């Protein structure tokens, strides 16, 4: 069965941007008769908290959104490790000593961050394998152009090895990095369609590169507009108002009307 997912990080409360993204994903999936999964991305040991995950589920339910299944990404560490085993067996993993400070001032990647120059390629893993390596791990991507499909008309094509550099797949603190976990979990859940914000669009080619290395099929993407405040998107990083405050001011139908109007789906903000 065709399946979609909404995958918010649990690093803080839901904010207007989270709620809009959830609503657009829900509307897209339900209008197409797709199975829809809520996947709570909770792998960051420093920022993710159980109370944030619980609040996310509660706030999305208050908005009126329902799910065919709810998953926690932290429950799937074995499958993430298996993917690292596959990449290590193919000779693709290597430790990285370069810090963000080392890369600062170099070349900008399409997402605005500093591109990695692949300087560590060829560095062997320690004798005990990747599990004994205290350093971040990167994966050697193929030098090829990827062509992810976005049915909203965005051109997502690009060479991730050149545009971004080899991505980190396991962080220094042992956490599995976003792109690898995302690709592995999407495949395991049978995800065929992904609706998410345009801020993630430029790095889709990284996920396409990982899908290629792991022999995984690529889903169809659609990247939607973002809520912005001035020149900044609504996000937890920028301190956008949380769902608890929104619930004190709005009813769920009224907030849905506001979000739908902001997305151009309704001519008015009326519920």
Spatial strand sequence of the major β-sheet:
3-2-1-7-8
CATH architecture: 3-Layer(aba) Sandwich
What is the CA-CA span between the terminal residues? 32 Å
Provide a count of the helices.
9
Shape annotation: globular
Estimate percent helicity. 25-40%
**The first-level CATH class name:** Alpha Beta
- Strand tally is 10
What is the N-to-C order of secondary-structure elements (H for helix, E for strand)?
A: EHEHEHEHEHEHEHEEEHH
Overall tally of domains: 1
CATH homologous superfamily grouping: HUPs
Quaternary structure: single chain
Ranges where pLDDT stays below 50 over 5 or more residues in a row are 233-239
Radius of gyration: 19 Å
Give the overall pLDDT as a whole number. 93
Residues in β-strands, percent: 5-15%
Topology-level CATH name: Rossmann fold
What's the short version?
With 271 residues, the chain is an alpha/beta fold. The protein is built from nine helices and ten strands.
Task: Describe the fold and architecture.
With 271 residues, the chain is an alpha/beta fold. It has a single domain (3-262), classed as Rossmann fold. It has helices at residues 16-32, 50-63, 77-89, 100-103, 160-163, 178-188, 204-214, 243-249, 252-262, and strands at 3-6, 35-40, 69-72, 93-95, 137-139, 168-170, 193-197, 220-224, 228-229, 232-233. Strands 3-2-1-7-8 form a 5-stranded parallel sheet, with helices on one face. A 3-stranded antiparallel sheet has the order 4-5-6. Strands 9-10 form a two-stranded antiparallel sheet. Strand 7, helix 7 and strand 8 (220-224) form a beta-alpha-beta unit. Helix 6 crosses helix 7 (204-214). The longest helix is centred in the first third of the chain and has 17 residues, at 16-32. Mean pLDDT is 93; it is low at 233-239.
